[in-house]
Write a structure and sequence with these properties.
By secondary structure, the chain is an all-alpha fold. It has a domain of 67 residues: Helix Hairpins, CATH 1.10.287. It is built from five helices and no strands. The longest helix has 26 residues. The chain is elongated. The two termini are 33 Å apart.
Amino acid sequence: MIKKETIQEVIKFNKLRIKKDHSSNKVIGIEELSKYLKNQIKLEQAKELIAIKTRQYAKRQTTWARSRMVTWTKITPNKFSSVIEKINKSSLKLDQIT
């Protein structure tokens, strides 16, 4: 679902006239909703394109993480509580991590 505020944000963004090669133009949804506002595509098509790009982005993140985070310890949901307990018992506190 795309809220009216989202479309208003794209209208404001487009008024800024940021160069096409600027990284902020690569935000998922900007291009699709801009095409919708120019009547080049229907809103349903824009939603579908946004969903596709979001899935593609998530896939790239997963691929990146798989190759770069090999040594990281994976915490499965059923082990999450025990990991938090270990952190709480250690000298390292959760508020020190961030």
